[in-house]
Amino acid sequence: MTRSLRLLTDHDGPPIRGESAASARNLLVREARNGDVRAFAALVDGYYARCLRFALHMLANRSDAEEAVQDTFIRVYRALPKYEEREAFEPWLFRILANRCRSAGAREKRRSQFVEYGDVPERGVHPGLDEAIVWREEIGRALAALPVEQREAFLMRHVEDLSYEDMSVATGAGVSALKMRVKRACDFLRVRLEETE
After folding, report:
1. To the nearest 5 percent, what fractions of the chain are helix, strand and coil?
2. Backbone torsions φ then ψ of 182, nearest 5 degrees
3. Domain segments of the chain as ranges
4. What's the pLDDT tens digit per position in 60-78?
5. Of 151, 121, 120, nearest in space to 56 by CA
6. Were both Cys, which of 16, 64, 98, 126 would link to 59 (CB 3.0–4.6 Å)?
7. Cα–Cα distance between 188 and 10 in angstroms, integer?
8. CA pair distance 39, 46, nearest whole angstrom
9. pTM, rounded to two decimals
10. Residue 60: helix, strand or coil by DSSP?
11. Distance (Å, rounded) from C-alpha 152 to C-alpha 120?
């Protein structure tokens, strides 16, 4: 499982942690809340890659993921004046993003029910294709096979490194329910990925 998590996170770097980063982020949030467009742009720059990574894993379609992230930041910008600082910014942001991904996923599911695409050939492994790319594709397929709630919980916990308390704020689910979702996702992914090795 560690190999798969590293492949999911290595290209965007680890989430920013630490007391000084948190106080800098809180200052940016306060300034953006007071109408500072540059502070909001700095927040977008700081979170865009993580949000896009989460949306890509949730939706498995780059254009839908980019649209969900853009819509998220528009909604965040509009809602910032009502944002209460007693609530941590990161789970608040991911709650909005998760809702946008759920909406986009439901919209795509409805759309696909009305349109028949026919048989689409599976992507095969091509000689000379880098093993990491193949493995990343396997991880993507395994994630896509998870139920949405489990995929969302797994990504928030193991890819975005949110605490269970922050995940609870972001999703509205209880901590014990989230732990169970993550456990079930890990069990499923472990079996699925062992089959492909």
Report:
1. 75, 0, 25
2. -65, -45
3. 2-114+130-196
4. 789 899 999 999 999 999 9
5. 151
6. 64
7. 22
8. 10
9. 0.64
10. coil
11. 26
Q: List the structure tokens of 105.
A: 């996923």
Q: Which residues of 70-88 are buried (b: 16+ CB within 10 A; e: fewer)?
A: bbbbeebeeebeebeeeeb
Quick: pLDDT tens for 77-92: 999 988 887 778 999 9
Q: State which amino acid sits at residue 175.
A: V
Architecture of 2-114+130-196 per CATH? Answer: Orthogonal Bundle (1.10)
Q: Which amino acid is at 74?
A: I
Full DSSP string of 10-51: TTT-PPP-SHHHHHHHHHHHHHHHTT-HHHHHHHHHHHHHHH
Burial class (CB in 10 A: 0-12, 13-18, 19+), 91: buried
